[in-house]
Amino acid sequence: MREQRVTPLELFFDLVFVFALTQVTALMAADPTWLGLLRGMAVLTVLWWAWVAYVWIGTTTDADDGLARIVLLAAMGAMFLTALAAPGAFGQLSDVAGGSRDQALLFGVTYFAVRVAHVGLFRVIGRDQPDVGRAVRRLAPGLLLGSFLILVAAFLPPGWPRGLLWAVAIAVDVSSPLITGTKGWNLSPHHFAERHGLVVIIALGESLVALGVGVADQLYDVRTIIAVLVGFASVACLWWLYFDIVAIAAEHRLSTAPVEERNDLARDSYNYMHLPMVAGIVLLALGLKKSFADIDSPLKLTIAAALFGGTALYLLGHLLFRRRNMGSWNRQRAVVAVLLLALIPVGVVAPAWVSLVVLTSVLLGLVTYETMHFREGRRMIRGHREAHEGGEPHTH
Question: For a 10 Å CB count at each end of the chain, is N or C smaller?
């Protein structure tokens, strides 16, 4: 079977996800409390699983033509409305700016529609691919139940009843792929790895958007401009840590994995392990945005936790990603993750610009160490990728 490639329609779908990420940041920025951060992560999680579902469609078949294209565009429209309603997904005006019961209901209805469209698309695909059809029948009950519970939650009183049902819905949604297994899916390794790499870029881009929005009207002195460049450098370091070696090695591992192992590896490494990476980047975006509200004042504890802890969460995703792919741990990234957590108090007592400098200095130190210490392995891995791209397209 030919290797599937990312299509323009899939990139169009990813643009909707870009907007969804900005809305998650807006939700947390409007309510920068521990509860607000928890709500933001809950909304991000359900949006992530909706996006992941459509990645499996693209890696299984060409959904860029015929009826599949129409259904996918309709799902994108529903996803866009879901993103619009995200800041009010919990529907509490006192806690979330612009939130309302109507927005919670809109979020629930449109999210359920997105998931129904996903099942419908796969049923259409299953007509020509019986193994995929059987896999969908196993997965559909949990997938639809999780999204239906979020819809039901919109009718419950705001507060712990609604939050509890959300927790149950997320548990159902997240656990379903583990319970039903991955037998029957027809995975295209390059496509699958590329889509997840693109979503990391999307999340990093959202961080830059948050940074730019936070300082757009403050570029009036050299110090602020330098602080902006420091913030940009921190995002650039996150890009380097993923795309310099990690993405290349992981894609090679997925492409060369035995067929019977490949689907499980893809689900675990990309669907599950990339979620903490994206969540960490979104938290960093919140930290950057709030840091420039007043760069001479210390950060609130929640914002300091988002800035330093979000970056640590990103590195935790890397640790789990490597463990699942290579069976080993990255010690230096584990040490840096712990160090970043220990630096959270710095954000509470020092000016925001100091926190930015400290965070970026730590990340630059990690990037420099890995580039120098592993330069031979780095050269070999990147050279192998370049040689492979110069040859014939591989199949699976």
Answer: N
